[in-house]
């Protein structure tokens, strides 16, 4: 009798962990109802080799010495660390009229083979989603790698970040941050507005 009761209590505790807000926020959109289609330009990474003014995604890194390589084939972005600089970002700006004052979800599938770098320069390390919002020149929201997994070796997994964007933003950017050693692959990225019932996974004051 007591053994059966203990087993039932253990099962209920495990179930509670699986459906807790923290667990949902870490993995993404299972409970989210979308209010828009995908707002990203070029989710298949087809414009990476076009002249710069025609590219949807723009590359930047910590300093001038080229330290990362990136390419895309059949809709899969690959970013590999090749030098000493600590981070690289492939990102695009989004029309703020579509997202200001709204709850949004930025998500993608990631495949990771990332290692702790010897030259992190105090930036921390990992790979995955990055979001930035500004009002004028002032940063009002920033999210970097606030999901799991973000380090180590992992087969394809979908990760997401759900946030409420301030009404007064004048600039919004989303992208993929490589801040580790090794390789990161990305496919099927999406940015959507979501219903209010979809709980934020990142809350910034």
Helix and strand layout, with pairings?
Elements: H1 2-19, H2 21-27, E1 58-61, E2 68-73, E3 76-81, E4 88-93, E5 103-115, E6 126-135, E7 138-144, E8 152-164, E9 171-179, E10 181-193
Antiparallel strand pairs: 1-4, 2-3, 3-10, 4-9, 5-8, 5-10, 6-7, 6-9
Brief summary of the model shown:
This protein has 205 residues and is mainly beta.
Spell out the key features of this protein.
205 residues, mainly beta, five-stranded antiparallel β-sheet, 10 strands, globular, disordered N terminus
For the report, how would you describe the main beta sheet?
Answer: 5 strands, antiparallel
Number of strands: 10
Beta content: 35-45%
N-to-C order of helices and strands: HHEEEEEEEEEE
Give the count of helical stretches: 2
Please describe what this structure looks like.
A hairpin with a 2-residue loop joins strand 2 (68-73) and strand 3. Helix content is 12%, strand content 42%. Strands 1-4-9-6-7 form a 5-stranded antiparallel β-sheet, with no helix packed on it. With 205 residues, it is mainly β. The chain contains 2 helices and 10 strands, in the order ααββββββββββ.
